[in-house]
Amino acid sequence: MKIAILSALAEEQKGLVQTMADVRSVAHAGRVFWQGQLHGHDVVCALSGIGKVAAATTATALIERFGVRRIVFTGVAGGLGQGVQVGDIVIADAYLQHDLDASPIFPRWEMPGYGRTSLACDADMTPLLLAAAQACVDGSTEDLRARHASTPPRAHLGLIASGDQFVSQARASQALTQELQAAGHAVLAVEMEGAAVAQTCLDYGIPFAAMRTISDRADDSAHVDFAEFVRSVASRYAQRVVLDFLQRLERLPSVEAR
What we know:
Blueprint: E1 2-7, H1 10-19, E2 21-28, E3 31-38, E4 41-47, H2 52-64, E5 70-74, E6 76-79, E7 89-97, E8 119-120, H3 125-138, H4 142-145, E9 155-162, H5 170-182, E10 187-191, H6 194-204, E11 208-216, H7 226-249
Parallel strand pairs: 1-4, 1-5, 5-11, 6-11, 7-9, 9-10
Antiparallel strand pairs: 2-3, 3-4, 6-10, 7-8, 7-11
Helix pairs in contact: 1-7, 2-6, 3-7
């Protein structure tokens, strides 16, 4: 069974690709895909690209061209939910597109043709990813987070919103949070790709799970030390969580056996 590790940023994949055995690269659809072995799993690593269209294209290529049967996504996000702080990890249990609006033909945020607003992540992989994330933050060292977070890191499980906007102003993030909460959507974090991958995986019947390291609070400080945070925190979290997750994944039956 082939597993895709999809990442938003190159720094998150560098360590994983370096850890892979029998690694080889393939250029396809304007992207580079790295194939190899990790913890006994056939793995394909790829960068999603920025935005929903790029991410959906990459996910489709992984499924159609490389035959992956599961996809796990790593990346960073802005924290929106109460108690979600810089240096925390959010594991998605569902995704929605916060910039989708086909009203009045369809209710706000509902996906036309799908009859739903949110897309649930895989019920088997998500708890394993959450356990791996919890182990990661429990074992995080002071030097890993001291310059970026004032509180010990935590792992969260909940709704993540995606949209083709980099939310970087406090007024915009507050308006987004309030609007979604008023409709019953308690969103924890915001980013730009995950919902598109979740929709692609739904169309193909591919189990999907995702983690996001919180790099900022989606406010006016969103740009501060972003590159250094990705290098020193998010990339290390991604590698630790993914490798732990792959070990835990061995307990699950294959997709074909379900």
